[in-house]
């Protein structure tokens, strides 16, 4: 079979890239060692958050939010998107001032999607929040979606546009043969002129085959979910003073996260819940939402995700190999970015450029540092 | 963190025997069980029950007292009414007692959590008035509560027959017993009969129960298919087919039973290796002759490692106890082997009955692999077989993808009631019945824990 | 509707009073809530949050989670795993147990 591009990794980044290539008539082959969405993409918290992102990500997150708003246009599925806003709670005046500083900074750059809300509006939005909070950072256009449904929708749409997806195919080696990349796997070899590295927490292993060392750390953030509760909360809640992401889903369950980490055995692809860490998470919840104390936790789990030291991803052409592109290292906030990342990647591959500012995500930022040190 | 040399989880015959052996040999050992009294499923409440009720339950039940006496004398410490909600590969154990959660650790852990009844979805199985025979037996053993108006008992397996016999002795009106084992089971079982005759007392006991039940005039229906429980808000009748055609019995209570399977949530939660057993039709941990799992220092014995019954569980418990004493340096290999010999022999003898029973009581493949589209498979999230088939044919070709996509198995029971059914349905649809490779990934807490209980968890370094 | 369960007559039982659906009911010490409600004639212990259909205790050993009830004002408790206590208040749980949160 002739393929235009091989994409390593059937998570959201790989599938979104395949989909956007498909929209432009290019047929990709996605190689996934497990099954699509088996890792970070299928098990994340589903938060669609522009709020409080790294400044470098703002143009991307804003563009992605536009797509999520009408996600059915892209995916023929609404992925259970709900845009009821996200708030970042300030418990003290000092915290509120720091949020104000951020809003000022964004406005100076021409972005108006985040704003400060006062106490009254905060308690109107989050009536069950403990008394005494002073205000919050707020974006009414944020929200959440169901990650596995989104992954499925990306997969189906990509397939309908000509993408081929192979499950259980583990990429073990890569060679350049003339103008083509040949990928060796446990199920034979595949060749294509373009190669895209969307291998999530394993992407550094792929990058290493091109001599592109990247300081990627695989980590396993944990989430827990409660029994069903009567509806009490619309927006997703975070807090300046705590590691917390707290939201009630449409079915009534509450998903609690906050980047607390599980024990990870990457080799075995096994995560083990660290209940000492989750205790902190539970304490935060009982502190901010006392009515949750008697609510039962039904399940805790972790997803394996790639973290970069600066907490922003690598989205760039390879600096060392022609026809090779990278999109990885989303550091636990890539779900929201996924529709725009595919768009950027398709642009990079087919036009050699993109309409969004991606310089901060260049892979050379790490290579320069390495060389500097030498 | 509180630390023990040996922690044993489950106070049935396997756990009690393991604890007694280990403590007698001088190991510091704690036995943790969520029931208020020792005995496990078979000997539930045996040391607190009124005498009259114990007599009614029969001699096999009462003999549990001896095992409990041995345990009490051994000096093992005992934590009743304590639920285990997590065990990880590092042998950290999450317990909950009186609303207080804590983490413990141990040099060795023996999991002896026993069995649960095989959940088998059929139309109407969620109606009030339908419950398992095990549930009926628990009501009888621990509370002396029995059916009032009458009861229909349906399914296959020794427990169904035993409970019917116990009910008969308690004067319960048994309206009918529906035998749902397929016809050819008997022939398949005959192949294993010679081996089974080594332990013919089991067969004689079964025949005795049947004979006495028939003499009492209780109607038996054979080779039942198409069982339906019918009613609006609670059970009103059951319908089924047998050789005479379609039948209907008005009843307000149906007790169903399709054999028992290991309660594997805790062992699967640790991450040790498991395999699908095509004879017992369930997940079993991979263990060696001493019960050691694929994880260092974690053993699994008794019905929790594969169904062998109470006698085999007791011997397996003793073997795991000896192995613990050995690996913790208090017994040489020779001594262990010497001590183990009798138990190994008795256990092997006793297990001779299993292939016969497994073949005789094996539920029908149609019942397990192809429930009708409208049958609820996941009781908690109310997911039908039809929805699962749709997800499957839309490209979600393993149980975990189906779980993510449909929420099947994500409700409060954490998949205990639908895990096997979904595995078998998927395997049937894909035509790989014998080679089931994946069940749900089991996530802790395996028993619910409140946020407050987690927030006040003891035994962890404060805010490290 | 008559009760589908009854108690065996046994001597020397110790009894306590609990409240089931607003009625005072005499039950033996040490019994589980699920056993107590079944013996008291309550056929179903809850309705589901999804379709609203009635459910009743199914396994009595803590593995099916059908016996979720509101016990002393706290919803979603496993009635087959909780022992009765003098004065305990037990309610059928409607859906997620809205009224009690
Ligand atoms: C617990 C958790 C909560 C999160 N919550 C949020 C949130 O609320 N909002 C948000 O925006 N983001 C969130 N994220 C982050 C988000 O999930 C990720 O950034 C995003 O899914 C990354 O997608 P990916 O495609 O890069 O990675 P993945 O989904 O991990 O996909 C990479 C794929 O590559 C495959 N692969 C790797 N190596 C090979 C190989 N050699 N051969 C073949 N295949 C290979 C892997 O099997 C994997 O499926 C969360 C992440 C986690 C873990
Ligand atoms: C409902 C039921 C009734 C049965 N009745 C009979 C009978 O009458 N006669 C017969 O021959 N066989 C009966 N059996 C079969 C029975 O499984 C075995 O014969 C025997 O009890 C197995 O012994 P065991 O020690 O392996 O496990 P069990 O006797 O089942 O003991 C396991 C113990 O572990 C405890 N436990 C489980 N999980 C946890 C946890 N997470 N935390 C804390 N404690 C936990 C349980 O409460 C239980 O006390 C029954 C099985 C079931 C499921
Ligand atoms: S009746 Fe099954 S958990 Fe209580």
- As a whole number of angstroms, the C-alpha radius of gyration of chain C is 13 Å
CATH fold type of the largest domain in chain B: FAD/NAD(P)-binding domain
Largest interface: B-C, 48 and 44 residues
- The number of distinct β-strands of chain C equals 9
Q: Which band does the percent of strand residues of chain C land in?
A: 25-35%
Q: Find the CATH topology of chain C.
A: Ubiquitin-like (UB roll)
Beta-strand fraction estimate of chain B: 15-25%
CATH superfamily of the largest domain in chain B: FAD/NAD(P)-binding domain
> Distance N terminus to C terminus of chain C?
31 Å
Structural class given helices, strands, pairing of chain B?
Answer: alpha/beta
Radius of gyration of chain B: 22 Å
Strand order of the largest sheet of chain C: 3-2-8-6-7
What is the distance, rounded to the nearest whole angstrom, between the alpha carbons of the first and last residues of chain B? Answer: 14 Å
Bound ligands, named by name, code or SMILES: flavin-adenine dinucleotide, FE2/S2 (inorganic) cluster
Q: Catalogue the unreliable spans of chain B.
A: none
Which percent bin holds the helix content of chain B? 25-40%
Q: How would you classify the quaternary structure? A: heterotrimer
Task: Provide the CATH superfamily of chain C.
Answer: 2Fe-2S iron-sulphur cluster binding domain, sarcosine oxidase, alpha subunit, N-terminal domain
What does this structure look like?
The complex is a heterotrimer of chains A (374), B (464) and C (101). Chain A has helices spanning 12-23, 40-43, 58-69, 71-75, 93-108, 119-125, 147-160, 203-208, 275-288, 338-351, 364-373, and strands at 5-8, 28-32, 47-48, 86-90, 115-118, 135-139, 143-144, 164-167, 171-177, 180-185, 188-192, 194-197, 217-219, 222-226, 236-239, 242-248, 254-257, 263-265, 270-272, 296-302, 305-307, 314-317, 324-328. Chain A has an eight-stranded mixed beta sheet with strand order 5-6-4-15-16-17-14-20. Chain A has a six-stranded mixed beta sheet with strand order 8-2-1-12-23-22. Chain A contains eleven helices and 23 strands. Chain A has 374 residues and is of the alpha+beta class. In chain A, a hairpin with a 2-residue loop joins strand 15 (236-239) and strand 16 (242-248). Chain B is of the alpha/beta class. Chain B has three domains: 2-116 and 261-331, FAD/NAD(P)-binding domain; 119-258, 3-Layer(bba) Sandwich (FAD/NAD(P)-binding domain); 370-436, Arc Repressor Mutant, subunit A, CATH 1.10.10.1100. Chain B is built from 18 helices and 23 strands. In chain B, the strands form six sheets. In chain B, strands 1, 2, 3, 4, 5, 6 and 20 form a seven-stranded mixed beta sheet that branches. In chain B, helix 6 (158-169) links the parallel strand 10 (151-155) and strand 11. The radius of gyration of chain B is 22 Å and the shape is globular. Chain C has 101 residues and is mainly β. Chain C has a single domain, classed as 2Fe-2S iron-sulphur cluster binding domain, sarcosine oxidase, alpha subunit, N-terminal domain (Ubiquitin-like (UB roll)). Helices cover 7% and strands 33% of the residues of chain C. Chain C contains one helix and nine strands. In chain C, the strands form two sheets. A five-stranded mixed beta sheet of chain C has the order 3-2-8-6-7, with helices on one face. In chain C, strands 5-4-9 form a three-stranded mixed beta sheet, with no helix packed on it. The radius of gyration of chain C is 13 Å and the shape is globular. The mean pLDDT of chain C is 93. The chains are: A alpha+beta (374), B alpha/beta (464), C mainly beta (101). Chains in contact: A-B, A-C, B-C. At the B-C interface, helix 2, strand 8, helix 5 and strand 9 of B face strand 1, helix 1 and strand 5 of C. Strand 9 (145-147) of chain B pairs antiparallel with strand 1 of chain C, so a sheet runs across the interface. Residues 34, 57-60, 62-67, 78, 80 of chain C line the site of FE2/S2 (inorganic) cluster.
